[in-house]
Design goal:
mainly beta; seven-stranded mixed β-sheet; 11 strands
Length: 127
């Protein structure tokens, strides 16, 4: 069982930055893939980024939606049971509730593949 708690959301002007954190409980967190998803009002939840569990000799693999590639960076610190989403050059269209999610095994872009979810954190980007 894994419990996830997001933090770091807020109000920022376009072009600004925010760093979201996803704190996880559970001793086997390092073996979970973690994804970030977002949901804007009136829209379906969409994939943002994902990071695989760390392989000792090669580290973690990362994946991004085209809309955030080059602006967002996902990373993880297994010693702290945490995953981060650094968001730079924010745009008004990035406004949404952001969720982190975990699953055993490989990363996935389909939210239906994830077993554990946080409660979400609001990100609002003003123009």
């Amino acid at each position: 069982q894994v419990q996830l708690v997001e933090s770091g959301g807020g109000l920022v002007q376009a072009g600004g930055s925010l760093r979201l954190s996803c704190a996880a409980s559970g001793r086997t967190f390092s073996r979970y893939a973690v994804g970030w998803f977002r949901q804007a009002p009136g829209k379906e939840r969409e994939f943002v980024a994902a990071i695989s569990w760390a392989i000792v000799w090669s580290g973690s693999s990362t994946y991004y939606a085209d809309s955030v590639k080059g602006r967002f960076t996902i990373s993880r610190d297994n010693a702290k049971n945490a995953v981060y989403l650094q968001m730079n050059s924010l745009k008004p269209e990035d406004t949404a509730v952001y969720y982190c999610a975990g699953r055993g095994g490989k990363t996935a872009v389909d939210d239906a593949e994830y077993d554990y979810w946080g409660q979400g954190t609001q990100v609002t980007v003003s123009s």
